[in-house]
Batch of 2 targets.
Target 1
Amino acid sequence: MTGPALNVAATRVGTHALGPGRRSVVWVQGCPFRCPGCLAPEWIPDRAARHAHPAELADELLADPGVTGLTLSGGEPMTQAGGLAALVRAARGRRDLSVICFTGYRLERLRARPPAPGVTELLGLLDVLIDGRYVAGLDDGKGLRGSSNQRVHHLTPRLAGCGYDFTGGPRTAEITVDGTTALLVGVPPPGLLTAFDSAVRETRSRLLPPGTPDATPGAPGRAPLPTRPREDN
Ligand code: SF4
């Protein structure tokens, strides 16, 4: 199974924080948007991160035999749609899986003017698409979408009747720590980011010399982002 290599910000194998059941997650590097309050601003720049081939990544994400689904996030997955479509095909060649994808674009825009090669193919492989840019003022602390303007599209019936409440259910999040690297997995419930940021700062101050620059991939930074002119997404 071939496809363009992916530029990957992070992966997580086996989590219950990003959709129904036990899932593996891939976050891609690079996003054309600048949503104020973005959970992962360090994944916005279009810079080289980890380059991984779809088949290799499929093996990694399915190393946990209990995984029944994939969640694609970022960064902006649609900018790497061709590679992600190849990943989904490779993974489904090994196991039957549901697939959820987040995007800052609106579904109508993706269908009318795909922003990158492979978007139409990827849309054809998804069970659920959560679309639209994050708006901090509309973050109601509920569901798998980050703010209430974002929509949950069941592109197939597969997860529509599974009992998982994508829009109104309670949020869960997991924090993994590996050395000095912390990764927050999930859409954070109210108050969690503040607690997480202060815990990271406290831990770093104990472990690292003063003045050490923050090079913590996966840790959600909270620095204000420059806003860009509104885009048609
Ligand atoms: S679309 Fe998502 S990753 Fe991109 S800036 Fe907005 S919240 Fe961040």
Target 2
Amino acid sequence: MIGALMPLAILDTTNTLLRERRERARALGNDLVSQGVFSLHCSCGNCGEDPLTAAFPDLATQDAAALLAFATAQCAGDVRRRCQSCGKAAPVDGLRLHLWSQQRNGDGVLELVSGVARWLFCADAAAPQVLAAGDALITTVLCDQLLRAGSFLNGLEGREAEALALWHRAAALLPQAPMPSIALGRAALLAGDESAALEHLRNAAACSDGHAPACRQLGALLGELALRHRDGELLNRALDWLDQALDLEPNNPVTAFALGRIFVSSGSMQESLEHLAVAATHPPLADEAEHLRGVALLQLGRADEAHQTFERLAQRHPEDADTLRMRAWARARSGDRAGALQELEALLVAHPDDEETRNFRDLVAGDEGG
Ligand SMILES: [Zn+2]
């Protein structure tokens, strides 16, 4: 049983566990990082937290009552957790459930002691703020959690329908939030239902102004649709959203990448270069950004620079056939046709059935005199 009068240790926002959670949440983006932290009171004198935390079920975050029911079930009966100090099973004092909110850049915390619950909100370097029942912040936190859980499930084989259900729930919970509509729009686009995608994106556009991640993702998705259909009007809308995202967060590499990619795909090579240079500073995007930059430089007739770009990429990925072909192509363009042919022949020896490489070889070989 949870001790009737035993309060939880004060929630210190500089607490290592909380800090690590926050750092992890930022790094993980939309992956699931909900956690439960039990508070222990051991006969050995140790009062502490059980750091063995776990993700909790997604449906628990559908509303505040569902989450409270989930928390209550975790503390029902004689619950014991291992004491970190003496290793014995120690009684649990209470439970804190943490829900990271991307929109509010802080942790929503449901605290449960002796069946009595209260909500707190912790932002960076601020004392925990106590929330009243029905506080709008609670809804924001739950909405973010549903989005996050949906993204997590969506990455698992065969769980896409559950992800959609969570995103629909998030949209219903907070109709004025753009991110659920964006998640639904992206899913519809991936499923090939473009009219549904446009409808979701239209809903998102109605509430994305001033919201950097929404502007960025909306712009990228509209850009994808625009390029697919060569729709100039849609392309302009996409660029407007990405420009707004860049105004809100200058030098954001993800926004820069989306802009660079759209410019390369729509033939605006010169405009793409500065954005791709920014995107290349962000390790997860660096390779793709460099590759696009190489393509743009080739189109601009700057074959030497393109060759250097693909050379750098080839050093990082010596087995990547696409990079090796482009390096050879840039080499041919910069005047060294014989060297390029040698590279392509070597690539064909290693992969004799590679049609793409054969095409490049024939193209370079046929370039004689030209
Ligand atoms: Zn102990």
